[in-house]
Each structure stands twice: as structure tokens, then as C-alpha cells.
Write a structure and sequence with these properties.
Number of helices: 18
Number of domains: 1
Strand order of the largest sheet: 1-2-3-9-6-4
Structural class: alpha+beta
Shape: globular
Strand content: 5-15%
Number of strands: 11
CATH topology: Cytochrome p450
Largest sheet: 6 strands, mixed
Order of helices and strands: EHHEEHEHHHHEHHHHHHHHHEEEEHHEE
Distance between the termini: 58 Å
Radius of gyration: 21 Å
Helix content: 40-55%
CATH superfamily: Cytochrome P450
Length: about 400
């Protein structure tokens, strides 16, 4: 049986990839995109390319693939952890450790809980909300700004910058979209440079101050590396967390019995959050590139061969997850791919999980009879699992 072909230019794939991926898996362990990438459909195979030294990250090819070969967005991306591999990547990640230490996560928990209560207070009398506008779009940005040490009056401006930079990874790239993402990254870079200067002059307990202090250590990050790390932290856990919240609340409204189980205790709440992440990975895909010629996954591979890794295929592989298409918060815990795996695991995964746990904790404690109003539409082509709107009705109990 020949490999299935997956057309990534088809909006239908992005709106609902699961029928396409199931049919492709029935035909074989891999598929091909219309541009010749090998699509990994099995969790075991995806695990291999994330830890095997014969594979590396695409680097700047992700931008070149959509027609960006130069300019401010390209230059910013050049210095990010996402395009680095090996020793330099590990060295820079090591400096971020203090930002995600338990003490910092406890500080973030308090911030996220407080903001979640305030957002629900604002919608309690109405008894309904549009999740993206009234909850999911606000909480991750608010919590990140407080966590990082960004002044409240700058929050909305920073949020606009982040929306602009997200467009830089969207296909097809248009001149208008490129202009918006480049304008946004220039503004974000300027803002972060000023923030670093302010924290050097007056350090505090925030994450930027901690990272500025790391510069004084042997082999500490250079100015441009420090700058890129901070932009990474700001941008890496806002958009995807927004998508994760929207999809989680969508499924909890669709499955009230599962929401009830998550209300039963701390362990079930945390398992439920992992199931929400598994069921709809907030970032849809990853890529790896072969460093050398090899025979693998039934194919002869040349150096530079690209592998497309749909996280939806991994997270619903029936060889890894029983009844993978069921949303079940009681399922046994197994590692999913929603925050990647191996040395390139998402830099902000601890921040994203903390925000999700605390935000959903408050929502489930305070909102009963969560009911979906209408059906949301998935937005095609964007890397995050975005929805156009999620409207819910509820009864606030406290």
C-alpha cells in the first residue's frame, strides 16, 4: 500500500485533521506532504526523532519555507533557542532554570488564581462569556506580565506586539502579514531592551531581574542572548496557553461529567489538565531534519530531509492511548507531545501548565452548569490550535 498524501495547503486539514490522520495511519506508519516532507504518524517514531542525534531542528528553514529569508523577524529568529541545537542550546537553557524554580511557580500560581477570580467576577452577573475575549485571552498575558515584571499599563501594548509576531509563522505568508509581524518584532525588541535597562538599574524579584543577574555568571548570556531569552519567555507561553484554555473550556462544556470529575480533587484536576492538552495540543505540529543519510521508518533518507510531526497524530495514536478520540480525564497518565519532548521541550511549559491548572481550578470551583452556546470554528493554517470564539453560559456559585 502506498503512502497517503497530506495537503497542508488544504484548509480542511487544519480545521479537522483527525479523519485525515486516521486514514493516513491506516495506510502506513508514515505519509508524505505534497511538498515531500515525511509525516510521522506513530508516537514511537516521533519519540525517536526528538532524541536521536541524527536529527536536528529545522533552524531558520521554518521561515524560509514560507518565504522569509531576511529582515528583522528573520534576524530575531536567528538568535532564539528554537533554532539552536547542541551545546549552545543547552548552555542558554541552563540560564533560564531560576526563572522556573518552585518559588517562582508559586508566585505565578497566586497571580493566575487572583486574575481568574477577577475575570469571573466581571462576568458573574451576565452568567455568560466569550471565552477568548473574557478569560483565555486575558489570563495568560496578565499572568506573564506580572511574572516577568512588566508594568500593568504596558500590558495591552505588549499583547498587540505578540499577536503581530504570531503571524510570522503563518502560511501562506503575504506582504501585509509580513509587514505586521516585522513591525511587531521591532517594537517588541525595543520594549524588551528598555525593560532590561530598567531592571539593571533597579532589580527586583521578577524574572527579568533574575536573568539579568545570570549575565554576571561565568559564560553568562550575552546581551543579544539575554534579549532573545526574554522575548522567548514572553511569547512562548501566551498564545499557546490562550489556545489551550479555549479548547479546554470547550471540551469541559461539551462533557459536563468530565468537568465534574475534575472538581473531585487536586489529582483529578491535574490529570484533567493533561487530558485537555492531549486532546487538543495547543501548538499543532513540530518538525525535525535528518543530519545524515539513513534508512529509517521504511524510507531511504538523504541529509536535509524534513519530517513533519503532527502532534494531533501523536496524541491520538491508538498504540499509545486507548480510545484516543474519547475525552476522558480519568485515563492513565502517559506522556503526550503537546509541549514537545527531549532537549527542545517548550521553554514555557511549566508556566503554561501553572496557568491552566490555576485558571481551570477557579473556573470549575465557581462555575456550574457550564453550557456551550453555538459551535466554534477552528482557524486554519495558524500554528496554534485557535478557535474563532467560544461562548458559554454558566451559573456562578461563589
Amino acid at each position: 500500500m502506498s503512502e497517503a498524501v497530506i495537503d497542508l495547503a488544504d484548509a480542511g486539514y487544519w480545521i479537522d485533521p483527525y479523519p485525515v490522520l486516521r486514514a493516513a495511519r491506516a495506510a502506513g506508519r508514515t505519509a508524505r506532504t505534497t511538498t515531500g516532507e515525511i509525516v510521522l504518524l506513530c508516537a514511537e517514531d516521533a519519540d525517536k526523532v526528538h532524541i536521536d542525534a541524527r536529527f536536528t531542528v529545522p533552524g531558520l528553514r521554518d521561515l524560509e519555507r514560507i518565504g522569509i529569508f531576511d529582515g528583522p523577524f528573520y534576524e530575531w529568529r536567528r538568535h532564539t533557542l528554537a533554532v539552536m541545537d547542541g551545546r549552545e542550546h543547552l548552555r542558554l537553557r541552563g540560564f533560564v532554570g531560576p526563572a522556573f524554580a518552585p518559588r517562582q511557580m508559586e508566585r505565578l500560581r497566586a497571580i493566575a488564581r487572583s486574575r481568574a477570580h477577577a475575570l469571573l467576577d466581571a462576568r458573574a452577573e451576565a452568567g455568560m462569556m466569550e471565552v477568548l475575549a473574557d478569560f483565555a485571552g486575558d489570563l495568560p498575558l496578565f499572568a506573564m506580565c506580572r511574572f516577568i515584571g512588566i508594568d500593568d499599563e504596558d500590558r495591552e501594548t505588549l499583547g498587540a506586539f505578540l499577536v503581530g509576531t504570531e503571524e510570522g509563522f503563518t502560511s501562506p505568508m503575504t506582504p501585509e502579514r509580513r509587514q505586521r509581524c516585522e513591525t511587531a518584532i521591532v517594537a517588541l525588541n525595543d520594549y524588551v531592551a528598555g525593560l532590561i535597562d530598567r531592571r539593571r538599574a533597579r532589580p527586583g524579584e521578577d524574572v527579568v531581574s533574575l536573568l539579568v543577574a545570570e549575565q554576571a555568571k561565568p559564560g553568562g548570556p550575552s546581551d543579544i542572548e539575554l534579549h532573545s531569552l526574554i522575548v522567548n519567555i514572553i511569547g512562548g507561553s501566551v498564545g499557546s496557553t490562550r489556545a489551550a484554555f479555549a479548547n479546554a473550556i470547550l471540551e469541559l462544556a461539551r462533557h459536563p461529567e468530565q468537568a465534574g470529575r475534575m472538581r473531585s480533587g487536586e489529582a483529578m484536576l491535574r490529570r484533567g489538565v493533561e487530558e485537555c492538552l492531549r486532546y487538543h495540543p495547543p501548538f499543532r505540529f513540530g518538525r525535525r531534519v535528518a543530519r545524515q543519510a539513513m534508512t529509517i521508518f521504511g524510507s531511504e533518507v538523504e541529509p536535509g530531509q524534513s519530517f513533519f510531526i503532527p502532534r494531533q497524530a501523536y496524541n491520538r495514536d491508538p498504540e499509545r492511548f486507548e480510545r484516543p478520540d474519547d475525552f476522558d480525564v480519568t485515563r492513565p497518565e502517559k506522556r503526550h507531545l503537546s509541549f514537545s519532548f527531549g532537549s527542545h521541550i517548550c521553554l514555557g511549559h511549566a508556566v503554561a501548565r501553572t496557568n491552566l491548572i490555576e485558571g481551570l481550578r477557579v473556573l470549575l470551583e465557581r462555575c456550574e452548569e457550564l453550557e456551550l452556546i453555538g459551535e466554534p470554528r477552528r482557524i486554519p493554517f495558524v500554528p496554534d490550535e485557535q478557535l474563532d470564539a467560544v461562548r458559554v453560559r454558566f451559573r456562578v456559585v461563589a
